[in-house]
Amino acid sequence: MKPYFLDSEYPNAAHEKACFHVIPFPLEETVSYMGGTSQGPHSILEASGQLEKLVDDYSEPGLLGIHTTDAIDCTYTNSIQEVYAKASKLVSRAFEQQSVPVMLGGEHSVTNASIQAISKAYTKEEVGILQFDAHMDLREAYEGSPFSHASVMKRAVEVGIPLYQVGVRNYSSEDLDAREAYKVGHLDAHALDRLKHTKEGYSQVSLPATFPKKLFITFDVDGFDASLMGSTGTPDPGGLFWWDAINLLESLTQGRTIIGCDVVELAPNPLLHHGPYLAAKLAYHLMGLIAKRNGLGEKKVFV
After folding, report:
1. How far apart are CA 291 and CA 61, in angstroms?
2. Chain segment 74-98, per-residue pLDDT in tens
3. E strands within the chain?
């Protein structure tokens, strides 16, 4: 039997009645260092069975209904766009049902599917992307592919989706040029380190007033520090720890609603189980944050 999210605690809710649509997208097409992202979604679903039902604010987002779809079939005949189209249909279905897509990657290029769905469902600049990542992912193409994990945010900004980046600590001149050209907001890792040690800490952080009120959150797990998250293609020092991420999510989403999210770039190590567990806990915390920000009110069982 295939695992579904938090199957130790809840039934797999019908998609018509579920608040959250978990979409496993095991894509491993353009990884450029260590592989393994194709195993990410399954390992997250398995690890989610070890989570408690309550998140850090003691709420229980699982009672709002979680539907886990079948994993996206990543085979194609002519173009990788065929695979993105399969996933984009499921994201669009969630939007149409006023549910929230929660995509589990897979390499970061899986976000291309959500970008396509957002562009169809919302007007230009109605939704902004809040990106947690060690990298900008703003290259025009990487290793010959415009749909690379290193180019995914370029595909977003070029269709008019505003972008704000958190935790970046690797830079190329091409990325920096694109960031400037598209006026991408950012709190890079070195700036976050200084803020963390001030009296106000991350509570002083907020998105620009002009940034869209509707957010899509994309969280590349290499945004975490390498000592916390080693199960990713490019584990990198100087990153976020758990409470850094949670407090930044809390501050940066104030006054916004969240239309969807993804957790990407997990490449599980069979000898270490903390990576999938961390990714599963993050995904569930995001559901709790979404419930709070979207004003879903009293918890209700949708099964």
Report:
1. 7
2. 999 999 999 999 999 999 999 999 9
3. 20-25, 66-68, 100-105, 127-132, 163-166, 185-187, 214-220, 257-264
Domain ranges of the chain: 20-293
Q: Which residue has the tokens 């998140």?
A: 55
Please state whether the peptide bond connecting residue 106 to the residue before it is cis, i.e. omega within 30 degrees of 0.
yes
Q: Give the whole-angstrom CA distance, residue 281 versus residue 292.
A: 17
Query: 21 CB contacts (<8 Å, ≥6 apart)?
Result: 15, 67, 69, 90, 93, 94, 97, 99, 100, 101, 102
Query: CA 279 to CA 219: how far, in whole Å?
Result: 10
What stretch of H or E contains 282? helix 274-293
Q: 128-145: buried (b, 16+ CB within 10 Å) or exposed (e) per residue? A: bbbbbbbbbbbbeebeeb
- Condensed to tens digits (0 to 9), the pLDDT of residues 237-289 reads 999 999 999 999 999 999 999 999 999 999 999 888 999 999 999 999 999 99
Name the CATH superfamily for 20-293: Ureohydrolase domain (3.40.800.10)
Question: DSSP readout, 156-216?
Answer: HHTTT--EEEES-----HHHHHHHHHTT-EEE-HHHHHHHHTSSSGGGG----TTS-SEEE
**Rounded CA Rg of the chain:** 18
CA nearest to 85, candidates 119, 126, 62: 119
Q: Which of 297, 128, 135, 118 is nearest to 212 (CA)?
A: 128
Phi and psi dihedrals of 49, rounded to 5? Answer: -65, -15
Please answer whether residues 125 and 116 qualify as being in contact, where contact means their C-beta atoms are separated by less than 8 angstroms.
no
Where do we find the tokens 């079948």?
Answer: 70
- pTM of model > 0.90: yes
Tokens encoding 14: 């019908």
